[in-house]
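Example 3.2
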Amino acid sequence: MMRDTAGYGVGTIRGNADVDDDTQIAAAQRIHEKARHLRGRFLNSVAVIERDIALILTDYFCTSDPAKRELFFRYVVTSRGFALSAKKEALVAIVKRDYARYWDKQKKILRTLDEIMTFRNKLAHSVVDVSHQALARPIDEGIGFVDWNGGTPITDKEFQDWVVKTNMVSGCLKEIKNLLPFKEHR
C-alpha cells in the first residue's frame, strides 16, 4: 500500500483490492484539488474581512494625518502581532461604545466572526482526509479535513453557508465604515 505524506493510507477504493495505484492517486488528486479550491475561496474571504477591520480601525484612530494613517495601518493593525482576534475585539469595543444601536441590531452577525475565525484556523492548518473511506466517497459528498469535526466531510452547500456568513460580516463592516467618524448620541 502507498502512503501519502500525512500518513493516511492510499489503499483500496470501496474495498476493491484490484483497483490500481493510478486510480487511487487520481482520487486523492481530485480530493486535494477540490480542497484547495474550497479552502482558498474561504481563506481569501476571511483575509478580506481582516483587512477591512484593519482599515476601519485605521479610520477610527487616525482621522486627519495621512502619514500617521499609513504608519498605523502598516506597522500596527496589519502587523503579525496584531491578530484577527485582537482586531475583532477592538472593533466590537468601538461598535458597542460608539454605535450601541447598531450593535444591538447586528451583534448576532458580528459574533459569527468568532465561528468564522475558528473554522478558518482549523481549515488553514488541517490535513485533507485521503483515508480509504475518503477515497471511496464520491467527491460531491464532501471533503474531509482531519482537524475539523473529526474529519466529517464538508459539502459544497456547507462551504457555501460559510461563504454566506463571511459575506454577512463583510456587509456589516461596510456599514460600520460608513458610520465613521460619527458617534451615536445617547
